[in-house]
Queue: 2 jobs
Job 1
Amino acid sequence: MAKTLGPVRRSFQPWNDPSEPAFIELRNVTKRFGEFTAVDNQSLTVYEREFFALLGPSGCGKTTLLRMMAGFEEPSEGEILLEGQPLTGVPPHRRPVNMMFQSYALFPHMNVADNIAFGLKQEGMGKADIAQRVAEMLRLVKLEEFSARKPSQLSGGQQQRVALARALAKRPKVLLLDEPLGALDKKLREETQFELADLQQDLGLTFVIVTHDQEEAMTMADRIAVMDHGRIIQVATPAEIYEAPATRYIADFVGDVNIFEGTAEPLAGGGLRIATSAGFAVEVAAAPNGAAAPARGDTVWFAIRPEKMVISHDRPAGAKEGTAPNLIEGEVWDIGYLGDVSIYNVRLASGDVVRATRLNADREVERPITWEDRVWISWRADAGIVLAG
Amino acid sequence: MAGLRLFFGRWIVTIVPYVWLLVFFLAPFLIVLKISFSATAIAMPPYVPVFDQLAGFWEKAKELSFDNYLWLTQDALYIKAYLSSLKIAVISTLITLLLGYPMALAMARAPDRLRPILLMAVILPFWTSFLIRVYAWIGILKPEGLLNQALMATGLITEPLQIINTDWAVYIGIVYSYLPFMVLPLYATLEKMDYRLIEAATDLGATPLKAFWQITIPLSLPGILAGSLLVFIPAVGEFVIPDLLGGSDTLMIGRTLWVEFFYNRDWPVASAVAIILLLLLVVPIVIFQKMQERSA
């Protein structure tokens, strides 16, 4: 890729290195439950030390994929390999993989220390070593004073950390996390996201997380696989997923987006002109992401994020007279003031509504945009993306 | 006015069970307790003293004594009967637990649509009278009965086994009759258990067997206790099963009690036997309640 989209950990891009061996590999994995196909012939590669997220709505097959890695389900077809070794037929208790459950699944009859020690005891580790490792884990999740408590005597956030400590105690090759933050409230969830990402880097472990929350996936993961109806639609970094989504589905699922249907018309200079059904024209510099350039008259979709649009009272200077491309006029229909940003829903003459956001950089604005104002919305030629499907 | 009605309404709701217990449990208990301190007499009722009027209450009360309880310790028959009852009840409870646990576990793990059918199958025997079901076992266990015929037909035995009128028949009868009382509380606790705990245990390296011992068994302890008491308590005092299926040498306290009351017409000794039996049963109940309180 010529340009880099968004921030990346410079030193860590094993997926761009052809010599890097796969750590977890799924080869043409299919999982059927009776008539229902939960995962449909999917292949996937996860690299060592990667924080990998499986993102999708409920029922998309992401949890089934995770449970197959843990060994709770066997693939109906295809195979899963860990460090090149097939895991087919290996029961969960023999896999060097541990899982953190959505409901935490803490043993209610054991205290915190015994919960954490459970996996180590199964290994036949010595008592002194177990005590040392448990203390280390308690320190890691900052629960030293709670070792004698029962899970029912802990808050949700503390239970979550016990579950994490228990899953990490055996130093697994891969930690699988099933909606690990789903049961926490928003504030705690945001804090924990960063803690979890830091922890993963410090420990140098491979994490595979399942989540339906795009923010969670974007904050923590090195790469995200977006899934829908048993298929992986795109595997890419958070920035690529957001800025260069492969399909309308992903553009819509990850973040906020305006999508307009239109007819393509290739331009002489290599760009593309799209006459949208909303009545305005779009000109973009590049063809759709990854797909072949559309021919004249093809139906395409133009997707643009609200924050990539500029909203103002005045017609932008330099815009051509009449109906210029990448410029629309409308009336402010609705305003959402979120503090840091404001959301403007602008109604066009065609009746379509465009959503634009503006950063509230100044505390006081001379002429604030308000309801029923006539406004202009414009964007740069590279601000949006053309999607073929 | 409405408040007053509400007050009485609540009061009546609370008082009814207490009145019930008072009239049908506490009063008979006190009567039996009193008789156990009386002396046998050839009269109607067959004991003295009889408190038929308040006059002379204290003189009559002085006649009450512990003689009957002393008698129970002097005749080895009673102690043997108690011990034999306890032994039969303990062994029967263990067998029902061993049979009932896998049944309850299989039911709890069965697919959702199968569970009501399996539950129904466990409850189904209650639709036939207990007495008739015990009688039916005579037909199965007697020397020319169904079991012996089947075993001889397969060639496993050449002579019919003597099962009826032995302790074996008593065990079979008790285990058969009380199995649902073990299965139902076990099923209730196992069905509530989160299966993810087992998955978590195996994920952490426990073999399925270890996960069973370390997770399933400890978490189903309340069900094990409840089921065991529901089998043990009635089994100790069981009368019908040893009487119909057991032999003349099958010693159980329920039968001894019956013989004292109706055969020997020694009401005072029979009452003493009943009181001691009650005390024997109260102890496990109290232990059970203490354990429930602690786990709650």
Job 2
Amino acid sequence: MDSQLIDWVLAAAQGLLFIAAAPLLAGWLQRVKCHLQNRGAPSVWQPYRNLSKLMGKRMVLAENASWLFRATPYIVFGATLLAAAVVPLVAVHLPTAAIADMIVLVAFFALARFFTALAGLDIGTAFGGMGASREMMVGALAEPAMLMAVFTLSMTANTTNLSVATEYLLHAGLVLRPSFLFALLALAMVAVAESSRVPVDNPATHLELTMLHEAMILEYGGRHLALIEWASQIKLMIYSVFIVDLYFPLGIATDFSAASLAIGVVAVTAKLMLLAVLLVVWETVLAKMRLFRVPQFLGFAFMLSLLGMLTHVVLETGI
Amino acid sequence: MSATIGTPLLLAYGAAVCTLLSGAVSLLAVRRHPDFLHFGSFLFLFCSGAGSIGAGGWTLLANLTVTDRFQLGLPWLDWHLRIDPLSGFFLVLLGTLVVAISLYGPSYTREFGRGKAAQPLPPLGVFTALFVLGMQMMLVADDALVFMIFWEMMSLCGYFLVVYQHQHAANRHAAFLYLLLAHVGALVILLSFGVLAAFGGGLTFDQMRAAKLSPLWATIAFGCAFAGFGTKSGMVPLHVWLPDAHPVAPSHISALMSGAMIKMGIYGIVRLSYDLIGNVRWEWGMVVLIVGTASSLLGVLYALMQHDLKRLLAYHSIENIGIILMGLGLSMIFIGSGHKMLGTLGLVAALYHTINHALFKGLLFLGAGAVLYRTHARDLDQMGGLIHRMPITAFLFLVGCVAISALPPFNGFVSEWLTFQTALQGPALKDGLLRTMIPIAAAMLALTGALAAACFVKAFGIAFLGQPRTRRVARAREVPVGMLAGMGLLALLCLLLGVLPTTMIEAMAPITQLLVHDALPSATAQGWLWLTPISPQVASYSAPFVLVAIILVFGLGRLILKRGAEPTRRADAWDCGFGHLTQRMQYTSTAFSQPIRRVFRGVWKVEEHIETLADAGSIPRVTSLHYSVHTHDWAWLKGYLPIGRTVLAAANRIGFIQTGNIHTYLKFSFVTLLTFLWIVS
């Protein structure tokens, strides 16, 4: 009973670490990007300052805003928080991972997207509708690709529990599986699309032709906006951790001793920093796509993940 | 009647009697005290629904099988009745919907008797009662005769309910199509029973169970049953009647049709293939899986293109039947390949989705009816902003939307999750083709789920959010409390079945015991909090946790963030500095689905017209612009129309024998008689 309690406390601590560290990842990303583009870089703590500034602002709501508009930020944040709680960040053996498996994780994102899109439609502006319509199109194509990539993993590990799967992959060692390569590529493409990054979306713009996610939340301000921004930072972090921990699980703690936890923290930090650099390079060399190129991009991701799945089914059984 | 009959069956009879009384009271409603008797009719309907729930719930929880026989009609043909966990489950489903509509109905139907287009209410009440009676008795039938009698009763009364507002030509057309396909379906079902009866030597289900069928005949029987019951369920490509018929019926009837009637097709498929034919084969599962996948994907894609709210919901019924069939298909594949436990899982997923769909689709149709009741609008592009005018209806409709979009913590998610978990066990199979097909089906299920979410963002967002698009919508009021109660009951059940899946699966164990002789002990082994279909190591989901966490974040977040904050100010929305926003600047439902229409073009036949009128001045200036877009169903254009034309052409060909002269017809009769005599002798 005692060790179970410790497990839960540690899992909760890990979840808190997750949400606390998410803005830091965003700050680091911004900083690297500025350096790469020869601009002056803000401090890595800038996202925290932005959030606290937004939290302290007086709320202004549009005349037509309903209760749904006010509830959405909390639902989005809650769903993202739950998603963060089940992804192993520093250590496996998470008791919280049993609350929701990979499929539920994807469904949490879908829940957040559903409500964000509704909030976009709530005010009745053209921007909101446009954002909602586009986001649901992107989501409808990204979600199956994501699920397929996840299924490839879970068929290999014969589990959809993230903690157990990570552990399995850690013990399996470095076996080169073609299906994993396909799934990894697909997952990376989906992650880019889902966390509103170039070339699918550009979080740094407010131009009507290019907005997807930003168009939906255009009417938000103050603490509502802070929650939504924070949630999208957590989402980016979840996708990053998902990729680094499932495909490169090296260094993740398998027990709760101080030493292995410390190693886990260092390992995941290093991996995330490296992944962020890769993402920045990708964002810097690529231009944003036209909206109707996005389905091709995501269709490609879907095909890749399906190929990965079929490769697994046809070639890799019994391994 | 036999000396002792079990209480559940007695309850079922009671429910049937109440249904009959409800119909009878409706008939009396013409004369005196119309309001009082009108109310009484729904009161009896309520009792009937409660009786069904009681009868079904009792059999299910106590794991009983009770039989009875009547001597009725022909002397050598007794009526056999039986209630077992499977029919109990469907009785609960039916009863819940009947209770919901009996709460909803009194206020809703009164609208039909008012105004210029006033309709007599008695036919509605009578046919509703007979329709429900048909379903109730069909579920307890234990021989093919009783089954078909009540099956036909359900189908025929459905026709009269669809055609209730017969002034509109579209309704008559829809009803005719429904009747036609219902009868084609019934004929095929009869063929299936024919095969079973021929081998079993009798019409009772017991004799059919005992029949020894060769694999070929078993497959023929299954094929006929699947096609026949599938027509009633609206599976692709036999779905064309459904999107026409469901929207034009009164909304509480739409709820009953989409929620219960099409489930009777599922009941038929399960009853015949698992119980009567037995020895499920994986080849059948493959067919069911393919049909299910096609239905779910095409259903949701067609739904996305609709702007009539009820039609949109009707297409979603096709999608959900597809998901149920996918679960059944997976179950048959696993059972046919010897994986009983996984087959059980698939069956549980399918049945779970069956009841889930009944609940949320019933709720959504009642919600659409509530909007119709207050605004007289079915077209999404005439609604908007109803969340301000009808807040409770909006909330309940939102619950339905979240549930049908398979989002946690509601019920639709649980059954889709279970279907995914079944599909993920695909590698357990030996056959390479199956192992490849199942992941593709899972991918299509994922796509379906995501598209359904897009569709319900559209449905809820365009209808309830934004600004009102017409004056009538802007003046709408909340509906009466009875209607809210009907919807509220279903919404509550949507949440309960989403949060307590473990309890529900435990309650469903007798069904799988009966059909596959297996249960899912592992699913419930970890207590009510954790759903672990195969083992805790493989997959787990804790819905209560999710619900509590979201509520906690909501409560704590508001508490912390709002503390000490300045009061919220209201201001104009951002209009780019161009003056005021009008309701015409909002996205319409057509605009909302345009990106998806473009991505999946080819699935529909899209006719897009843009008419521009321009001034013939020195600088051409557009004075008016008219845009219209129509999407058509390929199945209708390429499948049904050619068949219809061929039949018509053939009828014209042989039309010459119809001279209209009595002598000719007598001659025909004489020749026929002679031919038969010659054949017999």
